[in-house]
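Re: that backbone. Tokens:
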């Protein structure tokens, strides 16, 4: 069983391990003691207003939803978001089916030579 230390020794041990002032300033726990509190407050208010102005400017100049739809950033707002993924899959499948159909209907090289589109030298070997 350990004997409890005196409060003064405990306090001394804790004070020996406390962080220095600059570390507390760097971690934003306390304000810089070299600057007057009134100036710090004004600086903080100025920074806050600067951020507010920047955000207000960005909000005022953001593109419209129609512009974002044109740029393919947003999907069509007339369609429910839960259905937009299905619509995209459907469009992709339709495009794939159309391409497969066109490949199947594509004339073979012999027909292209007969029609004068290709010469016999341009026909790839099979």
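Recovered sequence:
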């Amino acid at each position: 069983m350990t004997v409890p230390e005196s409060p003064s020794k405990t306090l001394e041990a804790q004070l020996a391990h406390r962080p220095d002032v600059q570390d507390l300033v760097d971690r934003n726990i306390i304000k810089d003691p070299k600057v007057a509190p009134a100036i710090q407050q004004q600086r903080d208010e100025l920074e806050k207003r600067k951020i507010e102005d920047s955000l207000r400017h960005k909000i005022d100049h953001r593109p419209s939803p129609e512009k974002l739809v044109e740029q393919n950033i947003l999907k069509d707002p007339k369609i429910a978001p839960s259905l937009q993924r299905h619509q995209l899959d459907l469009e992709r499948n339709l495009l794939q089916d159309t391409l497969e159909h066109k490949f199947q209907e594509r004339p073979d090289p012999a027909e292209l030579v007969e029609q004068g589109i290709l010469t016999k030298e341009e026909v790839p070997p099979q």
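Helices lie at 7-16, 21-26, 37-60, 65-70, 81-105, 109-114. The longest helix spans residues 81-105.
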